[in-house]
Amino acid sequence: MAVKKIGQQTIQFQNPPKAISAYSIVGPKEGQGPLNIWFDEVLEDDMCQEKSFEKAEGRMLRNTIISAMKKCKKTPKDIDYMLGGDLLNQLMSTSYTARDLSIPFFGLYGACSTMTESISLASVLIDGGFADHVIAATSSHFSTAERQFRFPLEHGNQRPPTAQWTVTGSGALILSSEGSGPMVTHITTGKVVDYGISDVNNMGAAMAPAAADTIATHLSDTGRMPDFYDMILTGDLGEVGKKIVLDMLMGKGFSIEKVYNDCGLMIFDNSKQDTHSGGSGCGCSAAVFCGYIYKQLQSKKVKNILLVSTGALLSTISTQQGESIPGIAHAAVFSTA
User: Fold this and answer.
1) Residues 43-78: tens digit of each pLDDT
2) Would you say residue 275 has pLDDT above 90?
3) Would you say 248 and 208 are in contact if contact means Cβ atoms under 8 Å apart?
4) Residue 319 · residue 99 · CB < 8 Å
């Protein structure tokens, strides 16, 4: 009997995992944004002294994880599992990082929802008694994502107003069965939602219905009102997607405007940095949470956070074959209460 499941899609943990350490690294552009003082490390060179952007992303992720372990005085031998993924084919950055660290590894692909997918499954492992220490981590890089999903950088194509800027960044969170730190009390697993959007330069519109569905389901499953949370954060919907979420949830009877923001709008200053609709990428919600939000929870300036990372489940093949862009959104509740 699933005694920890409440409602349709939500788990309430009996032994909530504690987030004992977090670390964030971002690129130079992200370091010029409004949250610059909250990131643990800002790169001066997004090549990370490597010969390719893909290797640079791998090094960035590896350094993020190692630094998160150092913060809580753990080594790879102390970690039961590493969960994570990225946007590259065959989870290139994360798989090679797992190789180098030699930690038991579950590779995950949820596109830009991968951070909360990793946190969700890490929490299940810990609450279920299968692990004591688990790393949830992910990364993205503007230059790797652009040439995999859109155009070669040398092409210099013009970006429409609905387009978003893939965040160069990574975040690593270490969850533990013991210790102190913000607790993961609930997770709500998202469903794949597809409203037929096929424009690869309008990811916000493609992902927004999934975000609205997960948020509404979470609130219904838990019986909570939006103002229970200090913040409800989506991963990377940008300006376009944020407006759609607000409208869709209002139609479902939920007004979240007072507590709602989007990590893709928080990480950049669109008016000064020309990021069009905002930021995107796996590293967007990962860096914002592990940098800014985690520190707000630690200082108890906020007590309850609903983090809803959002992902567009497309590929270059699906796009070339005229497929629409399905969306997914997974939610995790962090609480200091």
Assistant:
1) 999 999 999 999 999 999 999 999 999 999 999 999
2) no
3) yes
4) no
Q: What value does the mean pLDDT take over residues 128-141?
A: 97
Q: Report percent pLDDT > 70 for the chain.
A: 96
Half-sphere exposure of 207 (CA within 13 A, CB side): 34
Token match 């630094």: residue? 67
Which of 149, 176, 203 is at the close of a domain?
Answer: 176
Tokens of residue 45, six digits: 């060179």
Strand partners, 11: 5, 187
Identity of the residue numbered 132: D
Tokens of 264: 């893709």
Sign of the dihedral defined by the CA atoms of residues 73, 77, 82, 87, in that order: positive
Residue type, 87: L
Please give the Cα distance from 189 to 210 (Å, whole number): 11
Question: Closest Cα to residue 123, out of 43, 191, 182, 36?
Answer: 182
Per the structure, the count of domains in the chain is: 2
Q: Strand ranges (DSSP E) for 263-326? A: 279-280, 304-312
In this predicted model, what pLDDT tens digit does every residue of 77-101 receive, in sequence order? 999 999 999 999 999 999 999 999 9
Q: Phi/psi of residue 276, each to 5°?
A: 60, -110
Return d(Cα 311, Cα 52) in angstroms, integer.
25
Q: Which domain does 132 fall in, by range? A: 14-176
